[in-house]
Amino acid sequence: MIAKRADTESAKVDYRVIGKPLPRHDAWGKVYGETKYANDFKLPNMLYAKVLRSRYAAARLLSINTRDAEKLPGVVSVMTAKDVPNNETVTRFGQTHAVGGFEGLYRVLANKKIRFKGEAAVLVAAEKRDIAEKAMGLIKVEYEPLEGVFDPVAAMQPGAYQVGEDKSNIICSYKVRKGSIEEGFAHADVIVENTYQVPMVDHAYLEPESGVAWLDDDGVITIRAATQVIEHFRGVADVLGLPHNKVRVIAPMVGGGFGGKEDITVETYLALLVWKTGRPVSLTYTREESIIAHGKRHPYIMRYKTGATKDGKLVAMEAELISDAGGYVYLSPWVLLYSTVQATGPYDIAHVRVDTHTVLTNNTFCSANRGFGGPQPCFAYESQLDELAKQLNLSPLEIRKCNYLHTGDAMATGRVLEHRVETEQTAEKVLEALGPPSKPKSPPEKIGRGVASSMMSYGRMMFLHDTSRSFVSLDLDGSVTVRCGVQDIGGGQASSLAQIAAEILGVPLSDVNVYIGDSALTPLAGTTTATRQLYMSGNATLKAARVVRDNLLKKGAEILNTSPENLDLKDREIFIQNHRKDTLGLKKTDPECNVNYGGTRKAVVAVETCVDDDPDRVVALEDVVKACAAEGMPLFNVAQFNAPTRELIDFKTCQGKVFADFTFGTQAIEVSVDEETGKVTVLKIVSCYDVGQAINPLSAEGQLEGGALYGLGYGMMENVIMEKGITLSPTLAEYLIPTAVDAPDVETIMIESGGGVGPFGAKGIGEPSCVPTAPALANAVSDALGVRIYELPITPEKILRALGKI
Amino acid sequence: MMTYSIETNVNGRPRAAEVTARDTLLDVLRDHWDVFEVKNGCEQGDCGVCTVILSGKAVNACLTLAVQANGKDVVTVKGIGSPKEPHLLQTKFVEHGAIQCGFCTPGMLTSAKVLLDQNPKANRQEIREAIAGNLCRCTGYKKIVDAIEAAAAKPES
Asked: For residue A616, what pLDDT is reported?
């Protein structure tokens, strides 16, 4: 059941808690139905809110008449833009550090030009949900429909319809320049040039946006919401004109995020209604609202021209990427910067020219989505590589091996990859794991295989000056508390911190309790985005736990009459190293053993201990803790981890370091394609990544498996279909994501090079795991059919068109 | 609006409510009875997170009218097992890492329970088909299928 974990030459450290496939501590509450998500929460006297949204994608909002709605019995409050203290705020990107570069307008409620269909215009709070719904129907909004622009290329042209109030629809453009592109193509024996398109996609987390907010008895507006970013408390306070410490955000366990709960969703609406009414308010989006009103993954149009010598060496790559940002800026500039920096993929190319643009249109706005600008260019550069290989008569692996970046090489941006790069190894392993090719079952079936590699950053851009904090303490009985403001969106963000603290403090995982996600009570840990929590908060927790450990060892040394360097800490004992009879380790999972975790139950791993009987050489952790407490020696620490920083990069060259490190990996897919129906069946899929160090292999594998299926959905079926700004796929019956019968068993292989910048050499894996799947699929389909599909998703219809059958 | 009195057993506990003809079982479970372990993901029968066992069958609570549940037994994930008496499926879900965000889990477990009640030796393909109506966005399904397979009786060799 456990993925193969490839051996590497790195010396393996004998960890005791990390690196073990332990059941996550939050899993028990989830299987017993006890975990209380944002919408599983009621307060006395609570109101129910609804949001009235624009019916047009492009229009001028002329007037809103709320009189009839306000008169409806049971309606308590109706709010429009004029009721919002600061309806427009500007974010300068970066929760804790205003970096400049761009400004993103955050308009709470529509009052000028409507920029996309579904833009919020009116908030209603009523005693009951059905009254709020009825009130929505009584609100009269007068619009002057406008022409709008729905195609990013058209929106870039001079004289195009202006989506917003700015002069141009182009939000920003970046350039990467390396060498001389003309010279590069002059050296090429073969050049391929193609245009690729990728669709707008939804996160489709199972839990729609939701929250409950109330005015606490200390006058603080408290918002318990499904969010990846509790630090939006600042943005919400700015909208209300309140001091930041008068708004508190609590993130309970989140029912999936994938970037879609990175921007503010329900929080501001809830805060406004609480501020206006003084009563608790609940708001949950419908599925349709979720699909039309939260940020999507950007559709891109990508022209790639790639040249190679006859032996397969890439010599020139020219790329132009245009991203459709939709109606508002949100995180589009940064998503595009990720695409720009990673536009050449994990390859060493002498001559590069990349131009990228992100453009406002009257489509649903786009923002963060798992991969954050990584999956789009990967589809293009990996398709290009296979096209070159085909012309050069090389295998997909051969051409890639000629070109992979290695440790010490420089990317097109001049950034030298100083940490471990194991892409080549990941490629070899996935192909080996794919095994011998399957045989077609019947004549119209064709078998094909494809491979794709990618690199993707983990951790935020360095000029955002990212930080995280974590608090670790020991109680008198030796139990451990971690407080860290992470948001757990399902990736095991909280549980991995418990594992790190247990490792360092020599206690079983069951002895650690973790409090997360409260902007008032847990040290701020930044966003659960950018594949950064293990890296950032893992390092902060490690740092705090080490301070506590040092104090324990100091006291233990006094008791044992030795020096701290001679001591080790394990299974609740401090002992002189090389002395303890160690027959132990983690034995079994015992569901009967439970301890409290924030009101829910959690797993406990029973650890059999073998106590040495020499009291001169072993002392119980509990006794050391008590000795420390008696003398006032602190057994807590709050540590801050600061990511490496730099000043804002020059967007005209994008040279230098943008990210602290990258995660490298490869996926391989075998498909069977029915030439008569165009149906693609994925027979095998293998995903291999250098994860640095798996803190919890079960969780890391879960990320690799889930990421591959997320990527497969992108490759095969997902598409937010828009027609003139209207979403034609606003339900999960039209917006299709993979089901259990669509999903092959993803085989995962983890390389643990120990070469990451996270705790214990870990790399981040959450987002990178979904990046190369779609191009691996496209390459497999192309291998099967001999024709290439240049546009995602690869549907039966597109296949039949490519085959000239329709 | 005309209302109807309904009575059901939810996990063995008698429950009663006054409902309208259009109220769904999901509305009544969550809004009237605070049965929050039954999740609300789409209210359109597309996602499966509200799956409950109604008279032995797995149904979407959002597509079942509350009046249809009158006089019947409703079993949610809490009725399958509890911390004191975990069901093997729950234990296997935890052990196999079949849990990520957990939002699909209550519905996934109820579908799996009905499958194994009806087909105790279900194979991987049968498992996949039985949970095809339960979307999961996090796991890639593999660990969920592994967990259900591990809870199923071993086929005779």
From this structure: 77
Report the alpha-carbon distance of residue A676 to residue A443 in Å, rounded. Answer: 10
Mean pLDDT over B49-77 rounds to 98
CA distance A24 to B105: 14
Q: What Å distances lie between residue B68 and A710, B12, B23, B37, CA to CA?
A: 37, 18, 10, 20
Asked if B77's CB is within 8 angstroms of A33's CB, the reply is yes
CATH of A171-202+295-462+648-802, one of 3.20.20.30, 3.40.50.2300, 3.30.365.10, 3.20.20.80: 3.30.365.10
CB pair distance less than 8 Å for B139 and A603: no
Q: What percent of chain A is predicted at pLDDT more than 70?
A: 92
What class has domain A14-35+467-642?
alpha beta
Residue with tokens 């940002």: A325
Query: Do A208 and B41 make contact, defined as CB atoms within 8 angstroms?
Result: yes
CATH superfamily of B80-151: [2Fe-2S]-binding domain (1.10.150.120)
Between CA A412 and CA A347 the distance in angstroms is 9
- Give A442's pLDDT tier (boundaries 50, 70, 90): confident
- Which residue of A35, A206, A701 is in closest CB contact with B41? A206
Q: Where are the domains of chain B?
A: 3-79, 80-151
Structure token pair of residue A454: 């990618």
Instruction: List, for residues A526-573, the tens digit of each pLDDT value.
Output: 999 999 999 999 999 999 999 999 999 999 999 999 999 999 999 999
All residues of chain A having their beta carbon less than 8 Å from the beta carbon of residue B44 are: 287, 731-733
Digit-coded pLDDT (tens) for A350-383: 999 999 999 999 999 999 999 999 999 999 999 9
CATH 3.30.365.10 residue ranges of chain A are: 14-35+467-642, 171-202+295-462+648-802
Tell me if A671 sits within 8 A of A683, measured CB to CB. yes
Nearest to A663 by CA among A531, A509, A511: A531
Q: Give pLDDT tens digits for A49-61.
A: 999 999 999 999 9
CATH of domain A47-146+209-284: 3.90.1170.50
Q: Which of A484, A478, A545 is nearest to A507 (CA)?
A: A478
Q: What is the 3-state secondary structure (H, E, C) of A280-331?
A: CEEEECCHHHHHHHCCEECCEEEEEEEEECCCCCEEEEEEEEEEEEECCCCC
Burial of residue A217 (number of CB atoms within 10 Å: 0-12, 13-18, 19+): exposed
Q: Do A31 and B103 touch (CB under 8 A)?
A: no
Q: What is the value of ipTM here, to two decimals?
A: 0.98
Name residues 103-142 of chain A within 8 A of B (Cβ). 129
A617's tokens: 């050489």
In chain B, the residue whose alpha carbon lies closest to the alpha carbon of A747 is B142
Counting one residue from chain A and one from chain B, the pairs whose CB atoms sit within 8 A come to 188
Using DSSP's 3-state secondary structure scheme, residue A462 falls into helix
